[in-house]
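Support request, priority: normal
Reporter: lab tech (M.K.)
Component: structure prediction queue

Hi team, I submitted a job for Lytic transglycosylase from Paenibacillus flagellatus yesterday, and the status page still shows it as pending. I've pasted the exact input below so you can check whether something in the sequence is tripping the parser. The sequence length should be 191 residues. Please let me know if I need to resubmit or if it's stuck on your end.
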Amino acid sequence: MNVLRKKRVFALLFVFFLGLLFYNSEWLGKWLYPIRFEQDIAVSAKNYGVDPFLIAAIIRVETNFNPDKTSKKGAIGLMQLMPDTADWIVKRAGYAEETSKSLHRADVNIEVGAWYLNSLYNQFDDNRIAVLAAYNAGPGNARKWLDSGTWDGTLKGIDQIPFGETRHYVQRVLYYYDKYAKLYADRFPAA
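Reply from support: The job had stalled in the queue. We restarted it manually and it finished. Here are the results:
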């Protein structure tokens, strides 16, 4: 029993030491928080003036970089675009009609999603928190909350958002945004 106890203490100390050693390690952070499709993100972010870290954070929360994901509600691809929303974007942005049929392609999905984020930024006066709420709950819901005074559009007032899923979504995207901005500042310097 005494030998077993010593082994446990040693194992715990060893794990603690390793954790302390790698706590602030950049390579460990990049291993835990990878970004895939960097080139597509960079190009689309530049095309539409959207922060590439925000695109990456949304993709991480929506699909964890799985381009083949389709939600139970029918949202498609990396950025989980609803088909109706994608059709609206295709018409408004002047994309070829085939674009809607290619949403499982990473480059197409990111391009359409970046255009949509830019549109939301225009609709919500560059309020990133409101943009994220609108991306998740729909711009109609977000506008209703803001116009009625239900929510003030700030992160501090996030508890006022009526949808728990949207509150959690905004918090998660901002968490990953902070991680990516810190770890990958050298990859997207213009952000």
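The radius of gyration is 20 Å. The mean pLDDT is 91. Let us know if anything else looks off. Ticket resolved.
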